[in-house]
Amino acid sequence: MGCLLMLLADGFLMFALKRDFSRLWLVASWLLAIAMVPLARQAGRALLNSWGLWRLPVVVVGSGTGVQDACEALTSESGMGYDVVSVLPLEKIGIRGEQPGSAQSWAALCEEQGARMVVLALSDNDILERGALLAELVRERLPFAVVPPLRGLPILGFEQIYFIGRDIMMLQARNNLAQPLSRIVKLTFDVTVASLLGLLLLPVFALFAIAVKSDGGPVFYRHRRIGRNGRPFDCLKFRTMTPDAERMLEAHLMAHPDAAAEWARSFKLKDDPRVTRIGRFLRATSLDELPQLLNVLRGEMSLVGPRPVTAQELDFYGRDVVLYLETRPGMTGLWQVRGRSNTTYADRVLYDVWYVKNWSLWHDLAILAKTIPVVMRRIGAV
Question: Of the four, 19, 138, 162, 344, which is 20 to 30 A from 239 by CA?
Answer without folding.
Answer: 344
